[in-house]
């Protein structure tokens, strides 16, 4: 390989799967590491719209958000038992099955290959008596991809389940390892307000905690060095009026009708203003933005065209295309309008077997 020019080496490395370049190629030698870090620009495909039906426990995809969309969806994945979808990340689905253990059971699946990988339960897993309030335990998990190491990580954030059981630390499981790691979240515990969501973006996991005045504050966990730090929000808001999202690889903060985006991890910019509903959890797909009706049973694509004088993109009622529709939202999710949850999905043919043991 020493006789191969750098340009040829880069061309070869570009043909490897995205995560393989980061996870394996970087560790071959210094020359390969420099080629991956300095010469290869990652340009992932525009993600498809993945819609998860909580009542059916089925994942659907709609790959057309343009005006030519027929409004139809294709079934992507149907677990064998009733699961909650935690997240979709680089072609892998991370799912939660409540089962009979505290903290639930986690499974990672690749719909393109049909493979599944059950993960070890958290260290605190045990038979639990009195399961009231377990329905939202999956909300404390996030599924993250580290762009530098190429590792996938499952993160469980500090939280309290109706004071029945409290988690005061961050728990992390890296695919390919055999144990969970516990990381201190500091003396205050940085307890997550689950309704605001847990989002992992570019090697960081974010959640919302509550100050004594009932205001929202953002907490971040660095997947590189396990640091837990807090940051201010772009605008004051009560914890029950805000939620987190991901916008083009950056952290987004929603206080309807407005969306702010964190730039370079330092400053917030007001990016979008909506006249319609904003889906949970993902709403930006390439050059299109997704909106939903009040029951989250119909989704519409809006092509991004321009912005106002303050560079805020206005998402109105006009020039929208129906991209997915269900007849109704089941009664059990009527009050939270979250039966249909949206994610970003990009196919990968990389087998899960590469994570069967520590690499």
From TrEMBL:
Domain F-box: 6-39
Domain of life: Eukaryota
InterPro entries noted in UniProt: F-box-assoc_dom_typ3 (IPR013187), F-box-assoc_interact_dom (IPR017451), F-box-like_dom_sf (IPR036047), F-box_dom (IPR001810), SCF_F-box_component (IPR050796)
Gene3D superfamilies listed in its UniProt record: 1.20.1280.50
SUPFAM superfamilies, A to Z: F-box domain (SSF81383)
Residue span(s) of domain F-box associated beta-propeller type: 83-271
Protein name: F-box domain-containing protein
Species for this entry: Lolium multiflorum
